[in-house]
Fold this protein.
Amino acid sequence: MAGPDSAVVLQFESSYDYLYQQLLNRLQRFVRLDAQPNSIMAAFGLLGPVATQEITGERHGSTSWTDSPSSRRWVAKRMFEVAQMLDVNDELAIVLNLQMGYVNNAVASMERLADKLIIDAVTGTAQAGTFGTDTATFDATAPVADGTGGNQIAVGSAGLTIDKMRQAREVFDAREVGLDGMAMGMREFVWVMSPKNHQDLLEQTEATSTDYLGVIIVNGQEQANRMPLVQGRIPYYMGFDLIISNQLNTTSSNRINLAWHKQAMGFARWGGQRRIWLGELPEHHLGKGILVQEHMGAVRIQDKGVLAIVCDET
């Protein structure tokens, strides 16, 4: 005769945790966003500086008209998806809503991909011109203090150093990148680094001492902060929000850090949101299909507003 234990349902999981992974996007708040409902390309328009002319000569003379120089950068629509199948027997054996667990796992994959698209676009070849038929390659030569030159700070047989950050700040300032925003207390610059590069900073007194980090900017206002490393992070330094990423590219044993101004990078998402579909699959014994799709892409909009900083990680 069956005892009371025969009525017990075996429950293998009562909660659902994910293996350690990046779950959220970290970089989209540092780019120019564009939601495209219907198109195959997204355009980011640019206007160059125009000169002011002094009015001279006779009264009621002719006006000297001039055009503002304009240009465009383009990003092509790319389609991505995560397709997963959940057997009906899985749901019967486990008292847990596996569907949402699978969906959230797929969404996390999309968020990581969005960051990776932005990272690759910083140094990638950009589509340019009136119709996107021209190309603009990344200039990997060294920048000069006066703002001329290229966009890559050399490794110099060193990891991430304060000197490299100073050099980047000097180049951006000489190029008039974000100077007006900084004067108003806006935080529009980001520096993307690896965990090893962040450790490099932690080993440098200027980056950790409260003698240097005693004041932070919050909503354009200075606030005292005497515990800058209470979470083991340097969140903001030399005008840059510091973001740690494990998706940065490498060359040999060197890690390529990236720094840019918000208006220098563009990210487009077609339709304005991702598509999530859940349904039964008759051809697979009514197993559940979970499909997450998104159309998105990234592009470097302004060459002068980005820098690649090569750091030795040996």
Notes: Residues 119 and 198 are 17 Å apart (CA to CA). Residues 143-266+300-312 form one domain.
